[in-house]
Specification:
The protein is an alpha/beta fold. It has one domain: Metallo-beta-lactamase, Chain A. The chain has five helices and 14 strands. Strands 6-5-4-3-2-1-14 form a seven-stranded mixed beta sheet. Helix 4 packs parallel to helix 5. The termini are close together. 51% of the residues are buried.
């Protein structure tokens, strides 16, 4: 069985009506990993897997639109599943914002940083620090024959090239359109397309788009820069890598 990614939420910065912020299920190598846990993603996760099927959580950084549903999952572990020492991989600073090991035996924190390599089941993960305010980690997932890249949040000072060659599919943030470039440490759809083209990505999936923007225009700007049609991430859609 290959690697797949299911979108649990893809709104940038805050959730649109009926939407959810950043969160994805990565499945492959005999494991299921919850990648980022933004608001609304815990509810959508239950559409796709049982809680007992989860093997680990990976969080990219401390901005709340990427992790706060971990608080609800803590209650799931404490009151529903009874799981203890559930593995959470995240930059060191994030743990200070939530339950620590003393008050939450349900969670077992593993600090990760730029250049670290982790194996979860038969999935190999490699982390790369991006161009974003707090320590923010992009991640590459390598299965037996497939490779998935996730940009997390980043400005254009970082590129998908940092995750290495051979990415079959990349989830790349595309918060802005051309006019907003430079407003903050985020990429536009155009910049995401350029980054993916330079990295030789097979399929580019745009995510983390501001809810107020015309997503069709983001797709057009990204496609022009990528040199091929890009895909807009859709909540609850599953994509094979």
């Amino acid at each position: 069985m290959g690697v797949s990614v299911t979108v649990l939420g893809c709104c940038g910065t805050y959730a649109a009506p009926g939407g959810a912020c950043s969160g994805y299920l990565v499945q492959g190598g005999g494991v299921t990993v919850w990648l980022d846990a933004g608001p609304g993603t815990l509810a959508n996760l239950q559409r796709h897997v049982d809680f007992e099927e989860l093997d680990a959580i990976v969080l990219s950084h401390e901005h709340p639109d990427h992790w706060t549903d971990l608080e609800g999952f803590y209650n799931v572990c404490r009151f529903v599943t009874g799981r203890r020492a559930f593995p959470v991989y995240a930059p060191a600073g994030l743990r200070d914002l939530t339950y620590d090991e003393d008050t939450s035996p349900s969670l077992q924190w593993h600090d990760v940083a730029d250049g670290d390599h982790v194996e979860i089941g038969d999935l190999a993960l490699t982390f790369s620090r991006t161009d974003h305010g707090p320590e923010t980690l992009a991640v590459r997932f390598d299965g037996r024959d497939e490779s998935l890249g996730y940009s997390a949040d980043s400005g254009p000072g970082w590129s998908l090239e940092a995750l290495g060659t051979g990415l079959d599919l990349a989830l790349c943030e595309a918060t802005f359109q051309r006019e907003q470039e430079g407003m903050a440490q985020h990429m536009s759809a155009r910049q995401a397309g350029e980054s993916a083209r330079r990295a030789g990505v097979g399929t580019l999936l745009l995510t983390h788009i501001w809810p107020t923007l015309d997503s069709d225009r983001s797709r057009d700007e990204g496609s022009e820069a990528f040199g091929a049609p890009v895909v807009l991430a859709e909540t609850n859609a599953r994509y094979e890598v």
